[in-house]
Amino acid sequence: MTVKGSILIADDDAAIRTVLNQALSRVGHDVRVTSNAATLWRWVSAGDGDLVITDVVMPDENAFDMLPRIKKARPDLPVVVMSAQNTFMTAIRASESGAYEYLPKPFDLTELLNIVNRALSEPKKPRHDRNLEEQPDSMPLVGRSPAMQDIYRMLARMMQTDLTVMISGESGTGKELVARALHEYGRRRNGPFVAINMAAIPRDLIESELFGHEKGAFTGAQNRSTGRFEQAEGGTLFLDEIGDMPMEAQTRLLRVLQQGEYTTVGGRTPIKTDVRIVAATNKDLRTLINQGLFREDLFYRLNVVPLRLPPLRERSEDIPDLVRHFFKQGESEGLQQKRISPAGYDLMKRYPWPGNVRELENLIRRLAALYPQDEIAAEIIEQELRTRDAVSGGGISTGLPDDLSIGQAVEIYLQRYFAEFGTDLPPPGLYQRLLAEVEYPLVLASMTATRGNQIKAAELLGLNRNTLRKKIRELGVNVYRGGR
């Protein structure tokens, strides 16, 4: 049901004002439009309007400068901010300024109408403000693609919470950068950020690394040692490659998350803990659960807010921004200023980037250091990418023939799966587990291919739209408008 209200719109673009006026009026809202911030402020200060929709850049004032005044005068008034400056910092500033929601331009009209209806339906309550001058100057994330816009908006919503976040994505997509952004722009920014990579620690030392140990707890423990939980007290603990955590350590971690306390290895006194947990993995934890290698109850404790980082090949339109960013970093380190030719960018956008953003960064540093030209030509890019393919075995490799059918691939997978159990059988329920494992990537790939359009994805899959929505909820698919 649509909740009717009075909507105040401020945008310098006459076409956008017209579209919004017509769309909102058609569903019964009372709409007023203006092209400047002064008129909008006059309406707001007079007590008019139930909701504000405003562009960031106005002819007479930036919306971010006006938002604190609006929130002070009318803390219950929801403000939806739009911007064509689609960066991570834009989303963060919108959240920190007290905006109800941030929408990058061009926006989806249906999504905007849903946001308006949700804002008008919610009980009015003041939203927390924060001094913008406290923000770090650096921009940790780069990219303006639709896929990254959804990541920015999700992060902005998470900044003022302590909810546990599970970041998934291929190696090199920037999972630790996202975890650091959640910390540095969040409410725990004055506390420590402590990272631990589960894959880099011997299995028999993980519990000691996490929880610390007492003197004499085991051979070689000559002194008491603090663990990462104690080091991260009051801040954020980043558990990278969580899928590599051994089962016994998973059990102890689950107990900490449930009870909010832990004991050191060899200790007896429980220690209260106050940390925010951000976990990351490049593995499919659902598959590990089905194989009995990861605890399902721990997965649900960690997966409160799932966040999937898209591989670089799904957001190739971000490559020019990333290249300029890495070249600028190189300049600050004494390397010469460089640029890529248009044909070179075309080659880079077609390359699959198996190493993702990390691979791109390494390539840019190599180009800046080894080539004297101011402009790097396509021939050099092609030569470098061909060399990397030869070293890595040709980019993304599955080790399977290219003409393999889905049925043949599943058969090979099942042969390997059964072989892992030797003479034993896998746990019961294999039929449903296998269907679930196929269903998740199928729905995710369809949503990515249709840029998050559920109508098109439902048609592609041959499903009813309501059925698709149910599948998205049940499978935990992180929907975003991925670039192609």
Automatic annotation (TrEMBL):
One of its GO terms (cellular component) is cytoplasm. GO terms for biological process: regulation of DNA-templated transcription; regulation of nitrogen utilization. The modification 4-aspartylphosphate is found at residue 55. Keywords: Activator, ATP-binding, Cytoplasm, DNA-binding, Nitrogen fixation, Nucleotide-binding, Phosphoprotein, Repressor, Transcription, Transcription regulation, Two-component regulatory system. Residues 124-133 have a biased composition (Basic and acidic residues). Its main location: cytoplasm. GO terms for molecular function: ATP binding; phosphorelay response regulator activity; sequence-specific DNA binding. It comes from the Bacteria. It holds the Pfam family Response_reg. Residues 6-120 form the Response regulatory domain. InterPro entries: AAA+_ATPase, AAA_lid_NorR, CheY-like_superfamily, Homeodomain-like_sf, HTH_Fis, P-loop_NTPase, Sig_transdc_resp-reg_receiver, Sigma_54_int. It is found in: Cytoplasm. Residues 124-143 are annotated as: Disordered. Member of the two-component regulatory system NtrB/NtrC, which controls expression of the nitrogen-regulated (ntr) genes in response to nitrogen limitation. Phosphorylated NtrC binds directly to DNA and stimulates the formation of open promoter-sigma54-RNA polymerase complexes. This is DNA-binding transcriptional regulator NtrC. It comes from Tianweitania populi.
